[in-house]
Amino acid sequence: VQLRESGPGLVKPSQTASLTCTVSGDSIASSGYYWSWIRQPPGKGLEWMGAIDTSGDTYYSPSLESRASIFRDSPNNRFTLQLRSVTPEDTAVYFCAANKFYSRTAASWEYWGQGTQVTVSS
What is the mean pLDDT of residues 95-106? Predict the structure, then answer.
């Protein structure tokens, strides 16, 4: 499984950041994998944000579920994270990841993209 993130780079406070993960090597709709978003703020550890499974069910970190939504685009084999009402504290490198089992522990996810930087600043 290969994953590649794309994102806006720079987002203004209060706006919505939209990031996309394009998957190759397996189908997001039939592989049985869970597909996740994980981030790492500067100088901090990894934070698991949420995931979507093969059936389209979603799972979110309690600290982010009021602002985060994950969608999938099965025909194009990609999934998207939307993070609403961003603040400078959302500045981080954002990773998409895949795993055969569900976990809220970021380090346990097996397959990772290279990450994309999102900076929230006016």
Answer: 95
